[in-house]
Amino acid sequence: MGNLGEDDTVFKGEFVIGEQTCIISISIIMPKIIQKIVDQIIAHARREAPDECCGLLAGDKGGLQTAPTITEIYEIKNLPADDPRIAELKIAESRTVRYMMDPKEQIQAMRNMRERNLTMLGIYHSHPHSPAFPSATDVRLAFYPEVFYLIISLEQTAPDLRGFFIIDPKITEAKIEIVQC
Ligand SMILES: [Zn+2]
């Protein structure tokens, strides 16, 4: 993994600040992910199917010249249809077509990351019956522009795992580099 280049630009836009127009581009080094975590994401997705599964991914944030590496997984409960937050957010009731992480479990996971000096690097969820591409709801509820959104599709026999940066409304596919350890 080398220096940042044009390939790593995930967002480029023009902004008017006062009387000046500025072009802002954001570049992020794509994270690596260890094979064991990929296997666990696939197993979680299969266990929860036909519902979507979800969780957080963490690891070392890397440096200027080194890529962040995802080494830890936190499986989080996908809130059931009768949870009041589902109606508040105006999202589909059924867990077969959406995910919403249980906030209590999410906070616990984030606390555990802090205690272990880990950085939250990604959010994953599954698409049991659709391709590995963010849905309109996924984009609307992508609250963390700095993290990597990983989607595992079980639509075909072989699971399809893809990564994205989502800076609403822009979706940029990120290369996933899987490493052994
Ligand atoms: Zn989705």
Supply database-style keywords:
single chain; 181 residues; alpha/beta; Cytidine Deaminase, domain 2; two-stranded antiparallel sheet; 4 helices; 20% helix; 36% strand; disordered N terminus; binds zinc ion
Question: What does this protein look like?
Answer:
The structure is a single chain. This protein starts with 8 loop residues before the first strand and ends with a strand. Mean pLDDT is 89; it is low at 1-6. Strand 6 (119-127), helix 4 and strand 7 (148-153) form a beta-alpha-beta unit. The chain is globular. The protein contains 4 helices and 10 strands. It has helices at residues 35-48, 84-88, 103-115, 136-140; strands at 9-17, 20-27, 32-34, 54-60, 69-76, 119-127, 148-153, 160-167, 170-174, 177-179. The chain has 181 residues and is an alpha/beta fold. The chain has one domain (29-179): Cytidine Deaminase, domain 2 (3-Layer(aba) Sandwich). The protein binds zinc ion. Zinc ion binds next to strand 6.
